[in-house]
Write a structure and sequence with these properties.
InterPro entries: Hepadnavirus_pol/RT. There is one protein chain. The protein has 6 helices and 7 strands. The protein is of the alpha+beta class. It has 2 domains: about 90 residues, 2-Layer Sandwich (Alpha-Beta Plaits); about 50 residues, no CATH class. The strands form 3 sheets. Strands 5-6-7 form a 3-stranded antiparallel beta sheet. A two-stranded antiparallel ribbon has the order 1-4. Strand 6 and strand 7 form a beta hairpin. The protein starts with a strand and ends in a 7-residue tail after the last helix.
Length: about 150
C-alpha cells in the first residue's frame, strides 16, 4: 500500500521556521504534522517538543516561543519534506524471522539449490555461479511463501 501527502499540506509544514508563533498557528502546524505522520511514521519522534511548546500557553493568540529543540524538530521536518518524494510504501509491521516462518533457502555451485517452507521443500542443480544460483533458489521459495496463509504473530 502507498500513501502520499497533498502538496498544499507539504507547503504549510515547510513554511513555519520562525522562533515564535501564535498557539493557533502551532496547533494548525501540529495538525498537519499529525496528518503527515500517517504517511511518515518516522516523524513521530520529532513532534513531542512542539506539543509541549503548544501547551505552554493558554490562549490561541498567545505567543509561543520555539526554543532550539523545537526549531531543530522543525528543521528536521523541513529537510525531510524538501528531499522526500511525497510517497511512502507501507510494509507489514510484524517482522518475522526465517526461523519463526520455517523458511530457509541455500545454494552451492557444486550441488545446486534448495529451500524449505513450512513443511514443503524443493531442490535443483545447475552449472551456474553461486550468486546466480542463490537468486534462483529464492524464486521457488517466494512462490511457496505466497501460496500459503501465514499465521500472524
Amino acid at each position: 500500500m502507498k500513501a502520499s501527502l497533498p502538496s498544499d499540506k507539504l507547503q504549510r509544514i515547510r513554511d513555519i521556521t520562525k522562533s515564535y508563533c501564535e498557539q493557533q498557528q502551532l496547533l494548525s502546524l501540529l495538525g498537519h504534522l499529525n496528518f503527515a505522520m500517517h504517511v511518515i511514521p518516522q516523524g513521530r519522534s520529532f513532534i513531542s517538543r512542539l506539543l509541549d511548546a503548544a501547551s505552554a500557553v493558554d490562549k490561541l493568540h498567545d505567543c509561543v516561543f520555539l526554543d532550539e529543540g523545537c526549531r531543530s524538530d522543525l528543521r528536521f521536518w523541513s529537510l525531510l519534506l524538501a528531499h522526500w518524494n511525497g510517497v511512502t510504501v507501507f510494509y507489514d509491521d510484524l517482522v518475522r524471522s526465517s526461523d519463526s516462518m520455517r523458511f530457509f533457502t541455500d545454494a552451492a555451485q557444486s550441488v545446486g539449490s534448495g529451500g524449505f517452507f513450512q513443511g514443503e521443500w524443493f531442490a535443483g542443480s545447475w552449472p551456474l555461479s553461486i550468486s546466480t544460483s542463490s537468486k534462483f533458489s529464492l524464486n521457488p521459495a517466494y512462490h511457496l511463501y505466497h501460496t500459503r496463509d501465514i499465521p500472524s504473530g
